Amino acid sequence: MTKTFIMDDDAVDISKIPYRTLNTGDKIPGIGMGTFGSDRYSAEELAESVRGGLRVGYRLIDCAEVYDNEKLIGDVIKEALDEGLSREELFIISKVWNNHHDPKDVYNSCVQSIKDLNCEYLDAYFVHWPFRNHHEAFADISDRDKNSRPYSHEEFMETWRAMEDLVEKGLVRNLGVSNVTIPKLKLILRDAKIKPALNEMELHPRFQQGELFQYSLDNDIQPVGYAPLGSPNRPERDKTEDDYSDWDHPVIERLANKYNVHPSSICLKWAVQRGQIPIPLSSKRKNYLANLKCVTEDLLTPREFDDIRSVERDNRLIKGHVFLWEGATDWRDLWDIDGTIPGWNGYGS
Ligand SMILES: NC(=O)c1ccc[n+]([C@@H]2O[C@H](COP(=O)([O-])OP(=O)(O)OC[C@H]3O[C@@H](n4cnc5c(N)ncnc54)[C@H](OP(=O)(O)O)[C@@H]3O)[C@@H](O)[C@H]2O)c1
User: Fold this and answer.
1) To test ligand 1's pocket by mutation, which of 12, 36, 62, 260 has the most ligand atoms within 8 angstroms of CB?
2) Model confidence at 302: pLDDT above 50
3) I need a labelling partner for 47 at 20 to 30 A (CA). Which of 149, 230, 280, 337 fits?
């Protein structure tokens, strides 16, 4: 007898969640659930969020091997599939970590994630960062991997070829990049056989990344927005004195008051209306339910949507200090601020 996956009584009506179409033709929910514990939440807590998240209507789950919780999340996925949820309804993302960019490691990492997540194939697989530079969990802002090096396009393409093989083997349906810049994306697009379908980048009202966002859309690459609420509980290494909160800007506060919602709902309505796919994380049912529900009701007016432009402060939160190499000036070297890639030798230009 076929089982029906039982949703919670107050679940969100999934038919009201917008879906996007990727350059491969695959459909993806317009909002998902994040699973990075930020050195604060345990694997058990976040697996529990995924368990509850599926019951309230989340169908896109953003995972990664480095989050160290794929096995427990996989148990939850298996349980949901056994209880009648169909695999096709889910969109499962994972990412290869920086110390596994070597082609044979890319394959092994992907197979391990599929096994841990109990998902047969990945809907999308990302290169988590475009560097082989590694850091341990709980790394401090001053920690550096002594083998760290600047971006190497040759090395990146070696990794990308291994990613393309995963698609050809049927293990992965879509490829994604993350933490790239326009100069790097230009080179990747020039040399990829299989174009990235998704670009995961930091996106929230204080950091809108207008140029990279538009460049991605212009090249038919779907932006996925991480830290969509301004990641208030991000790891200590990613907190600096100059950072702003997304929640206390007067425009966000005014709209939160008008709609009688938490400011995080305004960040998410804006994100979905703009066309990026936000992947908020929450360990609390009340919060993750509100995060999903808010994008299915009371959309911002065009005027309100435009007002959020003024919240922009170019405030990158995940600056990436721990990925810096010897001789780098500061974290801005990771982000090609002046349009060039520091330390890159110009191969193939
Ligand atoms: N590709 C990358 O390099 C990369 C980098 C960073 C993150 N990510 C992905 O993006 C996801 C989201 O980013 P993030 O986790 O850093 O930040 P975020 O989603 O912006 O913020 C998460 C925090 O907001 C709080 N929160 C959530 N909903 C709330 C609500 N309705 N009211 C009040 N507080 C609320 C949560 O606390 P409570 O638990 O108390 O609700 C949580 O600590 C990650 O989990 C990960 O999957 C990817």
Assistant:
1) 36
2) yes
3) 230
**Structural domain containing residue 239:** 18-334
349 pLDDT band, cuts 50/70/90, is very low
Taking 60 as the threshold, does the pLDDT of residue 257 lie above it? yes
For the Cβ of 290 lying below 6 angstroms from any atom of ligand 1, the answer is yes
Reported residue count of the chain is 349
Average pLDDT over residues 301-324: 96
- With a 6 A CB cut-off, is 287 part of the ligand 1 pocket? yes
Q: Is 67 a catalytic residue?
A: yes
Please choose from 38, 231, 292 the residue to mutate so as to test ligand 1's pocket, defined by most ligand atoms within 8 A of CB: 231
**CATH no. for residue 142?**
3.20.20.100
Compute the distance from residue 43 Cα to the ligand 1 centre, in Å.
14
Round the average pLDDT of the chain to a whole number and report it.
96
Residue nearest to atom 5 of ligand 1 (CA): 226
DSSP 151-170: --HHHHHHHHHHHHHHHHTT
Q: Residue 200 falls within a domain, yes or no?
A: yes
Domains in the chain, number: 1
Contacts of 265 (CB under 8 A, 6+ apart): 256, 259, 290, 291, 294
For residue 281 and ligand 1, the question of a CB distance below 6 A is answered with yes
**For residues 21 and 290, what is the distance between their CA atoms, to the nearest angstrom?**
25
Instruction: Name the catalytic one among 41, 58, 67, 226.
Output: 67
Examine residue 111 and state whether it is found in any structural domain, yes or no: yes
Q: How far is the CA of 228 from the centre of ligand 1 (A)?
A: 7
Four-residue CA torsion sign, 56, 62, 63, 67: negative
Would you say residue 324 lies in a domain?
Answer: yes
pTM: 0.97
- For residue 12, is it within any domain? no
- pLDDT class of 348 with cuts at 50, 70, 90: very low
User: What confidence tens digit (pLDDT) does each residue in 36-55 have?
Assistant: 998 899 999 999 999 999 99
**Which is it for the CA torsion 250, 254, 255, 256, positive or negative?**
positive
Cα(168)–Cα(177) distance, integer angstroms: 18
